[in-house]
Amino acid sequence: MSEIKVAVAGLGAIGKAVAMALHGAKLPGLRPAAVASRDHAKASDWLQMQGITAPVVALADLPKYADIAVECAPGAILGEICTPMLEAGKRVMVLSAAALLSKPELVDVARSHGGQIIVPSGALLGLDAVTAAAEGTIQSVTMVTRKPPNGLAGAPHLLRNSISVEGLTAPKLVFKGNAREAAIGFPANVNVAAALSLAGIGPDRTTIEIWADPGVTRNCHSIEVVSDAAKFTVAIENVPSENPKTGRITAQSVLAALRKLNAPLRIGT
Asked: In CATH, which of 3.30.360.10, 2.170.150.40, 1.10.3720.10, 3.40.50.300 is domain 127-246?
C-alpha cells in the first residue's frame, strides 16, 4: 500500500503522543507530514527536540502536506481544521466529537467534496457494537459518566448554573439530559457521549448523566443499549492523561484507527 501522510493539528498530550508514534515508526506505512499549533515557536522547538522533521504550518495549508489530519485541538477551532482538508477531498480524524454535533455542515462539506470525517472509538468501549445495532432498530441508549471533580471544573454548565464541585465528599449529579445538551454544557468532557450518539440513535435521543465523584480517580463510563438485535451494557474506567479531562486510551485509540488505514488485516467494524 502507498504511504499515508499524516498531519497532527494540536500538540497537547494526545497530539504529542500521535506525533511521536508516527516518528517512531510504530505505524508502518504512515509518516508525520506536518504539524499545526497555536504556538509555532514552541511547537518547532518540541519537534526539534524529538528529532521529528515535520514542518509547522498553518491550518489552511494542511491539505498541501497531508492525506489525513488528526484533530487534537480545542473543539472551538474544529471548523478551521476540517474545512480545508475536506474541501480538498481529504480525511480528518476528529476527537472533538462534541464540537462536531454543533457543526453538521462539516458532514455536508465532506459529502460534497469526497472527503471523510473519522471519529475514532476514543475512550468508548463498545462503539463497534453500537454502530452494528444501529443497522437495525435501537430503542434506547443511556450513558452514565463519573469523573473526579477536578476533571469537570470550569465546564460551562457548572458555571452557568453556579454548580460547585469543590470539596465534595460524596458523588454529585451535575447533569442529566440528552447528548446534544451535554455537548454544549461540557464541551471538553463528553466527546465520548457525542461519539456514542452519532454511532447510535442521535444526540437528541441519547440520555446522559454526569456525576462529579470524589471517590473515583479515573474517568468512568457505563452504557446500556437496547435494540432489536441485542441488549448490552458496557463499563470502562479510563486512566486520565496529563489533561484530567482526557483518558490515556484516547491517544491509543487514534493510533489504532490510523493503523487500520494501511493494515493488511483490519479487525473491527
From this structure: 3.30.360.10
User: Does the structure show a pLDDT above 70 at 1?
Assistant: no
pTM of the model: 0.90
Average pLDDT, integer, range 37-66: 97
Q: Please list the active-site residues.
A: 221
Task: Kindly state the cell numbers that stand for 237.
Answer: 474506567
DSSP per residue, 45-104: HHHHHHT--PPB--GGGHHHH-SEEEE-S-GGGHHHHHHHHHHTT-EEEES-HHHHHT-T
The CATH code belonging to domain 4-121+249-261 is 3.40.50.720
168-193 pLDDT per residue, tens: 999 999 999 999 999 999 998 888 89
